[in-house]
Amino acid sequence: MNKQSIQKLELFLLGLEQRITENENFFKKITLKFKSGTKIYEGTITLQDNKLLFQYNGRNDKIEISWLGARISKVAQEYDAVNLVYEERGSTIFIDADNKNVKMKTKDTEIAEICNEHKETSQISNRDYYIKVGAADDLLKAIGILSENGKIKNDMIRKYNQIDHYIELVDDMLKSLCSKYETINVVDCGCGKSYLSFVLNYYIKEVLKKNCHFIGLDISKTVIDASKKIAEQLDYRNMEFKVTDIRNYTANKDIHLAISLHACDTATDEAIALAVKNNAKAIVMVPCCQKEILNQYSFDMLKSITKYGALKARLADVLTDGIRLILLEAVGYKTSIVEYVSPLETPKNLMIRAEKIGDSNKNALEEYKNLKKALGINPTLEKIILPMYEI
C-alpha cells in the first residue's frame, strides 16, 4: 500500500487505540485480512492482561495497546489492501484500506436490518420493543426467553413483555443519567439471577451506547454463582457479583442507579436505605409482599372498613409504599409511583421511582411525622434512613 493510504490508516488506528483503552471491558477482538493479489492472509488481535495479542503469519506477539497503529500499518505496507473489523459490545467498526482510499463505517445499519428481519417476533403485543429480538438474541437466549431457533418461548412471552415494559418505564431516567455521567454505575440489591441487570446492561451499553458497570448483591451464593455464569456466557465483563447482606454493603464508587425487584417486606426498605446511604442519584424499586405496616397500623375512623382482613391488608400495602415515597422526599428525592405490570398478572405490580434533587425536605418530614402519629406506626425505613440526615 502506498504512503498516503498508510498515513490515513494510521489515523483511524489511533482512534481505535484510544477506544480500546477507554472501553477495555467492552473490547472483543480485531479481525484482519491482508490481501496480496488473489491471496488473503488472516490475523486476529485480542486483549490479554492489558496487552494486545497479535496472531498473524504463525506468530503470537504481545504488544502494548499504544503500538496498535504502528504495528498494523507496518504489516499493511507489504500488501495491496487490508480489511479490518473492530468489535466491542454494542459496536462494530469496519476499515477497508487500499492504494486508492481508506474507508471506515459502523454496523448500525446492519443492526437495523436484523431488527427488520425479526419484525414478526418483535411485535408480540403490537408494540415496538426496546429489547428487540434479533439485535438482543444473545441476551434473550442467555436469560431463557428466546429459543435456539430465534423465537420467543410461549411460556416466556409474559416475562419478555414485563422486562421490556420495565425498560420503557425507566428509559427517561436512564437517558438523563447518561447525559450527566461518563459511566453509569448500577447496584442491584438482592439481585437473584440478575435478569434485570443483564437487560439494563444490554440497553445502556448497546442501545444507549453508554459505558456502565453493574454490582449484583445477594445473600445466596447459589444465585450469585448463577449470575456469574450468565455474565461469563455473555462476556459481560463490566459486572461483578458479591455474596453479602445488603445491610452491610458500602459502595467503593459513585452509585448512579439502585434497583431492586420484588424484595419481600422490609428487604425493600433495606434496599432503599442502601441507595440513600450511598447517595444514589436514582432509585427504582418494585416491592413484593408487605407485612410490617399491616401488623402496626390502626385508624379509628376506618375501623368499619379495616375490620375486613383483605381490605386492611390492601390498605397496608398502599400505606407502606406511600410512606416510602414520603420518606424519600424527606431525604431529598423527587418521587413517583406507577403500575409496573397489570394487576391481573400480579398484585405486586407497583414501581417506585426516585431521583435525587436536594439534601432534605422539611415539609415532607412533617407530613410523615403527622401520618406516623395518626396511624401509630414505627416503620423500619424511618429508623435506617432518617438518622443519616439527622432530621
Automatic annotation (TrEMBL):
One of its GO terms (molecular function) is methyltransferase activity. Residues 158-295 form the Methyltransferase domain. Keywords: Methyltransferase, Transferase. Pfam families: Methyltransf_32 (PF13679). InterPro entries: Methyltranfer_dom, SAM-dependent_MTases_sf. CDD domains: AdoMet_MTases. Signal peptide: none annotated. One of its GO terms (biological process) is methylation. The keyword Methyltransferase applies. GO terms for cellular component: cytoplasm. This is SAM-dependent methyltransferase. It comes from Ruminiclostridium herbifermentans. The lineage of its organism: Bacteria, Bacillati, Bacillota, Clostridia, Eubacteriales.
